[in-house]
Every structure is written in structure tokens, then in C-alpha cells.
């Protein structure tokens, strides 16, 4: 067996994870870090709901509340949802396409460490003078005016973690295009792989606008430029465009992989192939394409004029068509199937009505004149939580239960899983359904309190109760995870019994090289075909020979750490300087800032030079080792 | 038989409507109780979209429930092998075509209303000047208060917007510091007050609906603008046109600050003139000031936009504004003892505009005259009109001149 089977000390396990380039271990890193930030974001959400439970509450001060909402949104989108999706993408995609690793294992490791250091940097703001407080959208006029370094933490933290995301996106595009096993044509790829491909393409095109926007903000706040300073000829609307040109595709970057997870689950637990596979693929591509054409629907009230509003309204409505196709195809997949109500399947089933509701309120907002009323009210809050929780988070929870055996070789408790499911789904609807009405009754979003006597009291209290239920559900989930890890009851190949795609054909735990021999793919649902037409073993596409694998490396960690250090230098660069904007010119001068900035960049550049000069040719896994593993697997199976 | 069924049907409909109406929120701040043409059109569009979307949700839910109930493994047995269906062309066409039709039904009124509600041509006359025939209000949003200027009659007020009913009211919207958003939910949707340029739109206030909510609507800031964003409320007084004209005339009539009457108020006026007048004007002029115009403070409904209008609240507010509106610009701008604050409060509560003191006719004539003058000899006239040119307008003109210099250089 691989090194995982050997008894290892804690130190060597940690070292192994710090240096790993194995996509399966990187998936676990994403899962742990993303899970941690999900809990942090959840605690922030609870703080928000406690503050809003009753009118005129003073649980949080106004300033602290704005920091809470900003960090809740930023954390959940950038540090929880995206990394958790990357966890499942890393865990499944190379296995689904029959590859031994991703195209650029080194970049994969770099991606995860950039995200981790970016996330830590952003959250350190809580302890270093205050978190960002201009909302997760950080609109320029307010983010330039925001005193202190909160916004700088936001801009630099997202810049670092965003670089990691961009790198991972490029990696997945390359992997899926180049690394597919023989016979795995585009139209035989599982939906999870397809949605990963499209989402990764979206990342490649959507993140650069964010990077540019953040750089402009960084230059303004830290180096005294004036891109967003109106009095010196800047323009704040540019930020809104840059942010939403990224921000809208971002929604699809999140939801498409979730669609992929659900597609796998629907077909697995209905024992039926996905209905309308090619329609699903094209719907995915069209959604990805349209995702770039609709950003200004976030800006209907900015005053872009009726022509722009009308065009973007109609384009936004058009997105409902491919999404509708997907919903109906999923229902048709379930129709006539044989449904087993496992925890992942329950989440998938609950997703259909929940996401449909989030989708239809989205179409309602596409009607621009009506959106003048919805915009920036609680109706919007309700809508995007229906999409993000009812779509993405349900997908993540479903994926967590579904792919847990693939990632860890054990099964999460189905009983606790179902309890979590029931409480979470009830809590979710209690929290967010009522918020639609709050918005229609005239309650703006991002308010730290509301006055008594405006008719908002009961609805807000109900909403907070629902949030409490969701928190309880997450606690049960954490207990479930801890118990499962403690028990450590191993399961074998195809633990759900109805696995259809290539990843379930592998022994559990999956060998570090994934496939002893790269399999031959004979159609959609490759493993299912072999189960029905063969002995349930994939046919190899190559003879058993030595094959090449990449070496572990500590360099990605060092590279990311260098940027982490440099960010502190950039952050304090403008503190107390005459030329700086008002928000930071009154603070203490930090004379060491340029040196720290230089030191950090030197670390990163040094690591890059080392990487370039040092030959790292990888190593060969010998035929003998693979044969030994296969024999042992045979013995265990008997 | 048929009759009874009809009755039952109507009864059911009325019950549903009643239930719906009770969930519609308050008259003065709910989007579901539209109080004017704009809000009504938006409400109708919302209703149309809700009906279409409810139809979609119901259809999906029914098919979905059927699919799940029919296909349970418990019922079908462990060995049941579902037939693998690759897809169905007819079905795909159906569930592509029907949503497209539904969306077209929604898209047509959407596009129509988008253009209709953006039509603010009537605001300006042929020369690009403010049209004196129309009601135009210049709104300036500031960190955490609102200024309303009536450019046709050169009247400035703050926090309480006064508008005539049954008439289009045009708004020019801009922010002075950070982006805000101007929203009167009952009257219609919001529009952002950017710092980059001016946005324009119109609202209408129906007289009957205004009476239903005691002629007072709530307005809110809808864009996160700092810690006190939640408290950046304003009020809209919707008066019949004659009363509105009278109010304007009364305001216009105040050319000198109203003299204090009571002793402590007189003392307060002196303190006010020393400590407060730098930011707060007490004559209805000087748009773009540092702080809210207080000319008619004694007539207002609320203090700081949200506190009940009592002298006690006013004293508390002046003593420590930060406790009420965190991050406001007033905190620390003055240093007054408790007695001084009490005097100032007494003075401010006396700042009332005498009803019926102004002459509507002269107001109307002067408005027409001034607009004619403006169109003939623009520029200089404006500076005379506002007794204290604000910093902003000063810097504006500076910018203008520097721009023209550059042009000349080129």
C-alpha cells in the first residue's frame, strides 16, 4: 500500500500535508480550511441574526455590525463555498476522467496555500484594528471613505486568495482537456466534470476583472492613486462594473459545481442514467456563457439609463431557460427510477423546490422596474440565500456525505445525517422565506437595527429562530464528523452500491497513484457499463508498467507565505503619510512597512527562482510496487 | 347550484385577498401598498411576475412530488431495475418553449415600463434649464441626512421632503460624500445617489392614498453608507397642491432668521449663532451645506430622522449625537455646557414657519421671472440668490474655471 498505510508520526503527517501535491490530499486541505471558514462565517451569521432578533437591539454596535455582514459575506463566498467546491472538484475530477493527478500538481498545491494564507490574512483584521465594513461588494465611495485598515485587509486578502483560485481554475481547465483516459470523450464526461470545466473557464475569465478592481482599490488606498476619488477625476461606478463583471459569473462558478454534484447524486440514487445528458451539458455551457452578459442587473438603480436596463433585464430572463431545462431533466431522471433516500439524495431532492424558488425570485428581479423596489431590500437577501444556501450549501452538504467515503474511506452516520438534514432544511426555510416579505414591506438590507412600530418585529424574530435551527443542524453535523473520524470504520470499493462513474471503481482508500492501469472508458457512466456488461472491473487501456509521479514540494507553501508577509508591508505602507487618503493618513506611521513589503516579495521571488533552477523531475512508481498493492487489495476483498 | 358555487368562489377569493392584504405591511412604507402611479405600475409588474412564478413553482412541485412518490425504492423493491432513458426530444422542446413564452409575457411590460419610468424629459425646457412649470426637487444625500432643494423657488429644507399630491414630482439625486440610495417604498422604487453624477427620476403621490397614511410617508437610504445607514430615514409630507404652494411661500417668506421669543430661547439663539451656524442654516437657502437646514425645525415630525419630536430628545441628541447616530459628522464639532444645550434646544423648538405668512402669487411670479432671467443671463444670478455660497459650489466653480483654462491652453 501507499505511504498512508504506514504508521506515521504526527509531525510527518503534517509535513506530508504541507508539501503534498496529491490532488486527494489537497482536497482534504480544502475541506478542512473551507469547513473552518464555513463555521466562522456561520458564527458571524448568528451574530447578525441575534442583533436583528428584536428592534433597537444593542447586542452589536453599528460599526461592528457592518464588519460582521462584510466578513460574513466575504468569508462565505470566498473562503467557504469556493474552497469547499474545490475540495470536491479535487477529490473527484481526476478520478472521474481516469487521471493519476491534475495537469499541474505543483500549481494545485500553490492554489490551496494561497487561499489559506489569503483567508488567514483577511480574518486577522479582527485582531488588528477592525475588519472591513463596506459590505462584501465594497463599493468604492464607501470603501475609500472607510477609516482604518479594514478595507486594506479585504483587498489584499482577496487578492492573495483570488490568485489561488485563478491558478486552480487554469489547472482544472488544462486537466480536463488534456488528462482524460482513452475513451473518455467530452460527451462521456460525468456532469461533475463538465460543470467543473465550465466553472473553471468562468474562473479564468471572471477573476481577472476582480483582480484589476482590487488592484485599483489597493493603489488608491495604499499608494495614493485616485482611480475611485471623484474629486481628482476618478469614478466610483467603474468599481461597481468591475466587481459585478466578476460577481455575477461568480454566482455560476458556485452553483455549477453544485449542479454537478446533484446530477451525480440524482442518477446514482435513482439507479438511472441522467435524463437528457446532452441537453444538460449544453444548458451548463449556455448558463456559463450568459453568466457574463447580465452583470448590470445588480446595478439597475445606479442610473445606467433605460436602454442598458432593458437589455440586461431581457438577458437576465433568458438565463431562466437553460436553468429550467436542468430542473426538468433532474425531475425526469428521478421519474421512473428507484429512489433510495440516502442523506445526499435527501439534500438533492430538497434542492429542487428550494432552488426553484430562488430561481423564480431571480426572474422577478430581472423585471427592472419591479427591481427598483426589490433592490437592496431584504427581498434580495432572501433571494440570494435561497440560491446560495438552497443551491450551493445543499450541494456542499450533499457532496460531503456522498464523497466522504471516497475521500476518507469511511461513511458518515446516515442517522445523524438525516437529523441534520431535517433541521437544516426547516431552519433554512424559516429563516429566509419570511425575509422576502420583510423586503416588500420596505426593510432595506444591511441595516444594523430597525425601529419598533414598522411591522418588522415578528418576521425578524421568526427569521432569527430559523437561523438558530440551522446552527443546531451544523453542530450535529460536526458531531457526526467527529464520531465518524473517531470510529474510523473502513468501507470498501463502491460503498453506496450504485456507483456509476469511474471514481467508484477504485479501491478505498484510493491508492496515491489512483489507477494502477489507466482504464478504458466505453461510454457514459463508465463503471455502470462494466458492472452490467462485464465483471464490474474497468478494462485497462495500457499494460502494467512503471509510471511517473511528481515529487512533493514545500515551495508552494513558502511562495504563499511570502505574499502573506508582503501584504502586511503593503497594508501599513500608507499609514500616516501626507499623500494618503483621509481614511489612513491620520494613523501612526509604520516605518518598517516598505521593508516588510520587500522582504515578503523577496521570499516569494526567491521561492520562484528556486523552483526554476532546481531540477525536480519526479519519480517512477515501479511495476512491482503496484503489483504488491493489487495483491493486497485482492486479499482484503476476499 | 351554479349560483352557490359562484358564491363560494367569490368568498374564497375575498378570503385570500384579505389574507394577502393583511400581509401587505404598513401604508406609509410598504411596496405592497403603492401610493402613486410609479409604485402602482411597479406593483402591477410584481403581481404579474408573482403569478407567472407561482405557476412555475406549482407545476414544478407537482411533477416533482409525483416523480418522487412514484419512484420510491421501498415500493418498487430492491431488485427493480429502472429503464435507462437517454432523453426525450419532445419533452426537451416543451420545457424549453413554455418558459420562453412565459418570459416574453413578462419581458414586454418590463421593457415598456423601464423606458416609461425613465422619461424625465419634462424636467428641462428647451434650453436645458430646470423647467419652472414642473415640480423639481434636488436631493443631496449626506452621511446620515438628506437635503432637499426646490430649485424653481430657491428654497432649501432637510430631512422632511414636502411634495404636492397628484402631480409628477421630479428628482435630481446626488450624494455629497459616499453613495446612498433614495427610496420611498410606498411611492415607488429607489434610485441611487451617486457621487459621480446626477440621477433623475420621478414619483407621484396619490392624494387619497396620502390621506390613508396621514399624509406622511417614510423614506429610507437603501445603500450601505456607513455605521448609521440603518438610521438614515427621512419623511415625505404629501400635501394637496394648494397647501404645498402655501408651504413653499411660507418658507420663501423667511428671509431673516426667525427671532427667538422666550428668554432662554433668545439666549439659545446667541449660542447657536456662535457655535452652530457654521453648518446649520436657519433661513431656507444655501444648498450643499455641511449640516441639515433647520429653518422649520420646530414643525418637524422627528429629530435626527428617527427620534420622537420632543425637547428632551433634542437635548439628548445635542449632548451626545454619537450615541444615537454613530459616525455622524456633528459629534465633537462644538463644546457646549448642559445649560447652553438646553437653551439651544429651546431656540430650535421655536423655529417654526408661520402658516399662511407667504404669498403664493408672488412666489409663482418670482419663480417664472427668475427662470426667465436665468435663461437670459445665467451664472451671476445664482450667486446672488444663495446668501452663503457653500464650499462645494465654490470648489465647483473653481474646477469649472480651471477646466476652461485648460481648454484655452489647448
UniProtKB/TrEMBL annotation, chain A:
<feature type="transmembrane region" description="Helical">
    <location>
        <begin position="308"/>
        <end position="332"/>
    </location>
</feature>
<dbReference type="InterPro" id="IPR023616">
    <property type="entry name" value="Cyt_c_oxase-like_su1_dom"/>
</dbReference>
<dbReference type="GO" id="GO:0046872">
    <property type="term" value="F:metal ion binding"/>
</dbReference>
<dbReference type="GO" id="GO:0022904">
    <property type="term" value="P:respiratory electron transport chain"/>
</dbReference>
<feature type="transmembrane region" description="Helical">
    <location>
        <begin position="384"/>
        <end position="404"/>
    </location>
</feature>
<keyword id="KW-0812">Transmembrane</keyword>
<keyword id="KW-0349">Heme</keyword>
<feature type="transmembrane region" description="Helical">
    <location>
        <begin position="102"/>
        <end position="128"/>
    </location>
</feature>
<feature type="transmembrane region" description="Helical">
    <location>
        <begin position="153"/>
        <end position="179"/>
    </location>
</feature>
<dbReference type="Pfam" id="PF00115">
    <property type="entry name" value="COX1"/>
</dbReference>
<feature type="transmembrane region" description="Helical">
    <location>
        <begin position="554"/>
        <end position="572"/>
    </location>
</feature>
<feature type="transmembrane region" description="Helical">
    <location>
        <begin position="344"/>
        <end position="364"/>
    </location>
</feature>
<dbReference type="GO" id="GO:0015990">
    <property type="term" value="P:electron transport coupled proton transport"/>
</dbReference>
<keyword id="KW-0249">Electron transport</keyword>
<dbReference type="GO" id="GO:0005886">
    <property type="term" value="C:plasma membrane"/>
</dbReference>
<feature type="transmembrane region" description="Helical">
    <location>
        <begin position="274"/>
        <end position="296"/>
    </location>
</feature>
<feature type="domain" description="Cytochrome oxidase subunit I profile">
    <location>
        <begin position="9"/>
        <end position="522"/>
    </location>
</feature>
<feature type="transmembrane region" description="Helical">
    <location>
        <begin position="242"/>
        <end position="262"/>
    </location>
</feature>
<dbReference type="InterPro" id="IPR000883">
    <property type="entry name" value="Cyt_C_Oxase_1"/>
</dbReference>
<dbReference type="GO" id="GO:0009060">
    <property type="term" value="P:aerobic respiration"/>
</dbReference>
<dbReference type="InterPro" id="IPR023615">
    <property type="entry name" value="Cyt_c_Oxase_su1_BS"/>
</dbReference>
<keyword id="KW-0472">Membrane</keyword>
From TrEMBL, chain B:
<feature type="transmembrane region" description="Helical">
    <location>
        <begin position="90"/>
        <end position="115"/>
    </location>
</feature>
<keyword id="KW-0679">Respiratory chain</keyword>
<comment type="similarity">
    <text>Belongs to the cytochrome c oxidase subunit 2 family.</text>
</comment>
<keyword id="KW-1278">Translocase</keyword>
<feature type="domain" description="Cytochrome oxidase subunit II transmembrane region profile">
    <location>
        <begin position="23"/>
        <end position="121"/>
    </location>
</feature>
<dbReference type="InterPro" id="IPR002429">
    <property type="entry name" value="CcO_II-like_C"/>
</dbReference>
<feature type="compositionally biased region" description="Basic and acidic residues">
    <location>
        <begin position="356"/>
        <end position="367"/>
    </location>
</feature>
<dbReference type="Pfam" id="PF00116">
    <property type="entry name" value="COX2"/>
</dbReference>
<dbReference type="GO" id="GO:0004129">
    <property type="term" value="F:cytochrome-c oxidase activity"/>
</dbReference>
<dbReference type="InterPro" id="IPR014222">
    <property type="entry name" value="Cyt_c_oxidase_su2"/>
</dbReference>
<dbReference type="GO" id="GO:0005886">
    <property type="term" value="C:plasma membrane"/>
</dbReference>
<keyword id="KW-0349">Heme</keyword>
<keyword id="KW-0812">Transmembrane</keyword>
<dbReference type="GO" id="GO:0042773">
    <property type="term" value="P:ATP synthesis coupled electron transport"/>
</dbReference>
<keyword id="KW-0249">Electron transport</keyword>
<keyword id="KW-1133">Transmembrane helix</keyword>
<dbReference type="InterPro" id="IPR001505">
    <property type="entry name" value="Copper_CuA"/>
</dbReference>
<dbReference type="InterPro" id="IPR045187">
    <property type="entry name" value="CcO_II"/>
</dbReference>
<dbReference type="GO" id="GO:0020037">
    <property type="term" value="F:heme binding"/>
</dbReference>
<keyword id="KW-0560">Oxidoreductase</keyword>
<dbReference type="InterPro" id="IPR036909">
    <property type="entry name" value="Cyt_c-like_dom_sf"/>
</dbReference>
<dbReference type="GO" id="GO:0016491">
    <property type="term" value="F:oxidoreductase activity"/>
</dbReference>
Amino acid at each position: 500500500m501507499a505511504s498512508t498505510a504506514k504508521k506515521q508520526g504526527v509531525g510527518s503527517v503534517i509535513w506530508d500535508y504541507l508539501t503534498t501535491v496529491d490532488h486527494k490530499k489537497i482536497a482534504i486541505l480544502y475541506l478542512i480550511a473551507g469547513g473552518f471558514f464555513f463555521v466562522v462565517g456561520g458564527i458571524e451569521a448568528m451574530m447578525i441574526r441575534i442583533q436583528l432578533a428584536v428592534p433597537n437591539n444593542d447586542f452589536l454596535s453599528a460599526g461592528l455590525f457592518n464588519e460582521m455582514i462584510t466578513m460574513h459575506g466575504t468569508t462565505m463566498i470566498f473562503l467557504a463555498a469556493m474552497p469547499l467546491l474545490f475540495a470536491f472538484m479535487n477529490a473527484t475530477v481526476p478520478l472521474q476522467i481516469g487521471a493519476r493527478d491534475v495537469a499541474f500538481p505543483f500549481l494545485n498545491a500553490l492554489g490551496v496555500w494561497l487561499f489559506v494564507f489569503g483567508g488567514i490574512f483577511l480574518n486577522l483584521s479582527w485582531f488588528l484594528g477592525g475588519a472591513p465594513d463596506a459590505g462584501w461588494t465594497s463599493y468604492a465611495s464607501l470603501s475609500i471613505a472607510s477609516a482604518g485598515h479594514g478595507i486594506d485587509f479585504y483587498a489584499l486578502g482577496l487578492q492573495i486568495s483570488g490568485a489561488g483560485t485563478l491558478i486552480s481554475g487554469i489547472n482544472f481547465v488544462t486537466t480536463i482537456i488534456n488528462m482524460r483516459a482513452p475513451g473518455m470523450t467530452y460527451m462521456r464526461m460525468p456532469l461533475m466534470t463538465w460543470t467543473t470545466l465550465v466553472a473553471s473557464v468562468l474562473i479564468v475569465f471572471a477573476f481577472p476583472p476582480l483582480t484589476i478592481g482590487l488592484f485599483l482599490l489597493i493603489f488608491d488606498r495604499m499608494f495614493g492613486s485616485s482611480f475611485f476619488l471623484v474629486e481628482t477625476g476618478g469614478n466610483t461606478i467603474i468599481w461597481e462594473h468591475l466587481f459585478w463583471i466578476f460577481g455575477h459569473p461568480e454566482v455560476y462558478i458556485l452553483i455549477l459545481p453544485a449542479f454537478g454534484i446533484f446530477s451525480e447524486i440524482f442518477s446514482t440514487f435513482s439507479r438511472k442514467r441522467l435524463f437528457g445528458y446532452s441537453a444538460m451539458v449544453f444548458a451548463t455551457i449556455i448558463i456559463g456563457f450568459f453568466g457574463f452578459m447580465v452583470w448590470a442587473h445588480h446595478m439597475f438603480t445606479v442610473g445606467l439609463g433605460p436602454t442598458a436596463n432593458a437589455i440586461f433585464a431581457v438577458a437576465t430572463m433568458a438565463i431562466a431557460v437553460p436553468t429550467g431545462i436542468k430542473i426538468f431533466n433532474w425531475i425526469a431522471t428521478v421519474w421512473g427510477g428507484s429512489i433510495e433516500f440516502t442523506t445526499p439524495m435527501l439534500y438533492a431532492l430538497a434542492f429542487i423546490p428550494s432552488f426553484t424558488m430562488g430561481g423564480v425570485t431571480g426572474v422577478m428581479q430581472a423585471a427592472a422596474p419591479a427591481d427598483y423596489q426589490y433592490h437592496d431590500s431584504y427581498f434580495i437577501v432572501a433571494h440570494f440565500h435561497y440560491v446560495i444556501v438552497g443551491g450551493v450549501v445543499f450541494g456542499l452538504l450533499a457532496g460531503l456525505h456522498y464523497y466522504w467515503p471516497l475521500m476518507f474511506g469511511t461513511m458518515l452516520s446516515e442517522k445523524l445525517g438525516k437529523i441534520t438534514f431535517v433541521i437544516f432544511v426547516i431552519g433554512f426555510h424559516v429563516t429566509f422565506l419570511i425575509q422576502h416579505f420583510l423586503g416588500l414591506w420596505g426593510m432595506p438590507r444591511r441595516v444594523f437595527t430597525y425601529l419598533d412600530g414598522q411591522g418588522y418585529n415578528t418576521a425578524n424574530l421568526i427569521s432569527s429562530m430559523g437561523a438558530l435551527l440551522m446552527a443546531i443542524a451544523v453542530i450535529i453535523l460536526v458531531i457526526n464528523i467527529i464520531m465518524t473520524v473517531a470510529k474510523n470504520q473502513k468501507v470498501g470499493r463502491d460503498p453506496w452500491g450504485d456507483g456509476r462513474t469511474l471514481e467508484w471503481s477504485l479501491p478505498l482508500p484510493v491508492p496515491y497513484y489512483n489507477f494502477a492501469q489507466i482504464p478504458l472508458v466505453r461510454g457514459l457512466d463508465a463503471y455502470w457499463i462494466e458492472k452490467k456488461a462485464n465483471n464490474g472491473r474497468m478494462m485497462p487501456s495500457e499494460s502494467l508498467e512503471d509510471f511517473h509521479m511528481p515529487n512533493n514540494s514545500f515551495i508552494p507553501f513558502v511562495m504563499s507565505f511570502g505574499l502573506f508577509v508582503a501584504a502586511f508591508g503593503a497594508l501599513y505602507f500608507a499609514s500616516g503619510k501626507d499623500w494618503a487618503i483621509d481614511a489612513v493618513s491620520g494613523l501612526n506611521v509604520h516605518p518598517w512597512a516598505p521593508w516588510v513589503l520587500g522582504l515578503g516579495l523577496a521570499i516569494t521571488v526567491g521561492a520562484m527562482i528556486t523552483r526554476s533552477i532546481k531540477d525536480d523531475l519526479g519519480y517512477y512508481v515501479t511495476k512491482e510496487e503496484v503489483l504488491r498493492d493489487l495483491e493486497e487489495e485482492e486479499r482484503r476483498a476476499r | 347550484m351554479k349560483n352557490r358555487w359562484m358564491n363560494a368562489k367569490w368568498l374564497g377569493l375575498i378570503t385570500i385577498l384579505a389574507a394577502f392584504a393583511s400581509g401587505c405591511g404598513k401604508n406609509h412604507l410598504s411596496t405592497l401598498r403603492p401610493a402613486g402611479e410609479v409604485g402602482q405600475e411597479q406593483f402591477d409588474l410584481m403581481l404579474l411576475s408573482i403569478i407567472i412564478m407561482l405557476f412555475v413553482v406549482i407545476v414544478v412541485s407537482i411533477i416533482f412530488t409525483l416523480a418522487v412518490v412514484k419512484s420510491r425504492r421501498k415500493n418498487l423493491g430492491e431488485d427493480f431495475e429502472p429503464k435507462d432513458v437517454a432523453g426525450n426530444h419532445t419533452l426537451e422542446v416543451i420545457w424549453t418553449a413554455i418558459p420562453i413564452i412565459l418570459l416574453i409575457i413578462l419581458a414586454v411590460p418590463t421593457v415598456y415600463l423601464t423606458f416609461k419610468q425613465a422619461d424625465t424629459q419634462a424636467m428641462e425646457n428647451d434650453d436645458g434649464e430646470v423647467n419652472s412649470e414642473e415640480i423639481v426637487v434636488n436631493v443631496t444625500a449626506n452621511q446620515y441626512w438628506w437635503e432637499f432643494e426646490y430649485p424653481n423657488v430657491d428654497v432649501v429644507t432637510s430631512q422632511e421632503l414636502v411634495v404636492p399630491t397628484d402631480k409628477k414630482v421630479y428628482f435630481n439625486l446626488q450624494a455629497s460624500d459616499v453613495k446612498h440610495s433614495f427610496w420611498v417604498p410606498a411611492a415607488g422604487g429607489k434610485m441611487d445617489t451617486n457621487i459621480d453624477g446626477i440621477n433623475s427620476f420621478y414619483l407621484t403621490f396619490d392624494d387619497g392614498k396620502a390621506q390613508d397614511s396621514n399624509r406622511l410617508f417614510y423614506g429610507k437610504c437603501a445603500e450601505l453608507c456607513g455605521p448609521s445607514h440603518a438610521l438614515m430615514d427621512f419623511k415625505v409630507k404629501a400635501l394637496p397642491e394648494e397647501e404645498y404652494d402655501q408651504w413653499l411661500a411660507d418658507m420663501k417668506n423667511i428671509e431673516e432668521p426667525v427671532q427667538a421669543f422666550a428668554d432662554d430661547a433668545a439666549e439659545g439663539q446667541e449660542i447657536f449663532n456662535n457655535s452652530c451656524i457654521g453648518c446649520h442654516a436657519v433661513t431656507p437657502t444655501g444648498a450643499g451645506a455641511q449640516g441639515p437646514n433647520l429653518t422649520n425645525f420646530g414643525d418637524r415630525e422627528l429629530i435626527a430622522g428617527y427620534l420622537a419630536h420632543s425637547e428632551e430628545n433634542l437635548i439628548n441628541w445635542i449632548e451626545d449625537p454619537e450615541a444615537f447616530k454613530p459616525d455622524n459628522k456633528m459629534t465633537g464639532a462644538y463644546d457646549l455646557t448642559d445649560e447652553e444645550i438646553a437653551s439651544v434646544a429651546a431656540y430650535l423648538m421655536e423655529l417654526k414657519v408661520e402658516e399662511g405668512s407667504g404669498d403664493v402669487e408672488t412666489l409663482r411670479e418670482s419663480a417664472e421671472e427668475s427662470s426667465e432671467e436665468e435663461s437670459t443671463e445665467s451664472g451671476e444670478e445664482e450667486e446672488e440668490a444663495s446668501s452663503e455660497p457653500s464650499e462645494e459650489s465654490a470648489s465647483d466653480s473653481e474646477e469649472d474655471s480651471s477646466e476652461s483654462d485648460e481648454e484655452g491652453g489647448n
